[in-house]
Amino acid sequence: MNSPVSVEVAAISPPLPEVPPDYCSRALALWPRLERGRLARVRHDPRRVAALISRRTNLPRGAILELLGASSDETEAASPQN
Q1: pLDDT of 60-71, one tens digit each?
Q2: For the segment 10-27, what is each residue's pLDDT rounded down to a tens digit?
């Protein structure tokens, strides 16, 4: 018989492992004609993915990083400091 999971069981379950975001799949969803070979080489570095995409679009790198779902720390690192 199926019973709902109690709160106590959910509280003691181990946390899920933290997986880095896959910027490659997000980039391919937004820009499907990207070169997969080049994209595979820069898979986990959002700044390098944004640099690759910036050659195909007029969007600034900060906007590309936001579309890819990069964290604010990664977005700030990509913006030029004057």
Answers
A1: 999 999 999 887
A2: 567 677 777 777 888 899
Least confident span in 4-18, 21-35, 42-56: 4-18
CA–CA separation, 76 and 53 (whole Å): 18
Write the CB contacts of 33 (distance below 8 Å, at least 6 apart in sequence): 56
Sorted by sequence, the CB contacts under 8 Å of residue 76 that are 6+ apart come out as: none
Residue 56, token pair as written in the block: 């195909």
- Dump the DSSP string for 35-62: -HHHHHHTTT-HHHHHHHHHTT-SS-HH
CA distance 78 to 17: 27
